């Protein structure tokens, strides 16, 4: 049976589809909801976002952090309680299989994932535990996730994952073309609260709600990649700048590490994430999957598009690494054409600079 959030009973709620089926896309006024979520005129945000469709998996037992450390891209052995981090589970070829938000409460490690990932993640983890002292459970039905930009003091009793993005974690590396202190993600200090599902309506109470449309607009503006949106079956972390928050380059072996190290040291991830400022004259947004065109050639794909309350229509796209970062692109959505100026997220020489610094590549003459 498909999930339907009880908060869809709030006045004006319109259900979302795709990755976010089961919660509200908006409650009647997306731009106002976005302002209430983000905060404006110097005021902190007051709205929260219903993410109760998200998957939640717990790992308990004394071996949980050391065990997850051996499986994932992230260093977890010293993870302190209530500190948010991110881990990737990769294929042997270094492609992203799972992307989990991670927070530990001192007794259990909580993994927040996209809706359809919870069951297969729990199943895979159970297949890997062998004789270790860990217990894995898909607790998605018992726990609801609620997102916010601002802190919610009344919810201090609830465990929350605080997004490390865009800060470069220990062992991480930025592939962005701008320094950390200029990164637009700093304007979105995102957190996801874990609330007992049975208490969701009572805990949210009369607090203003913002829909998924508002949350996605802020995510796109923050250049924050999302599993299932910016990823496909070929995605490696380097292409999305996930090396900054989800990969520890000095930890021990894990599946996919060879590819991660090779691309990092030798350079040239095949694609790179870009931010697009779209022409707003059509008063519509291109669909995810729309082609990105340069000189009549398809050079990439739109992964997410949103209407930002200040910037207007914006998008994230994956393009070929070699695309000129100064070029004006065109997004083609089944014949509807959107001129698009691009802003570099992952630098065109990402990885190659690392290779030159470590001696793997020769500097160009």
Structure description:
The protein starts with 13 loop residues before the first strand and ends in a 7-residue tail after the last helix. It has two domains: 1-227 and 240-250, Probable tRNA modification gtpase trme, domain 1 (Gyrase A, domain 2), CATH 3.30.1360; 270-345, Aminomethyltransferase beta-barrel domains (Elongation Factor Tu (Ef-tu), domain 3). The model is unreliable at 355-365 (pLDDT under 50). α1 (30-38) packs across α5. β5 and β6 form a beta hairpin. With 365 residues, it is α+β, with helices and mostly antiparallel strands. It has a six-stranded antiparallel barrel. The protein has a five-stranded mixed beta sheet with strand order 10-11-9-3-12. Strands 5-6-7-4-8 form a five-stranded antiparallel beta sheet, covered by helices on one side. It contains seven helices and 18 strands. The protein has helices at 30-38, 64-71, 118-127, 200-204, 212-221, 257-266, 352-358; strands spanning 14-15, 24-26, 48-50, 55-60, 85-90, 96-104, 108-113, 135-138, 143-148, 160-162, 191-196, 209-210, 271-278, 291-294, 297-308, 312-320, 329-333, 336-344.
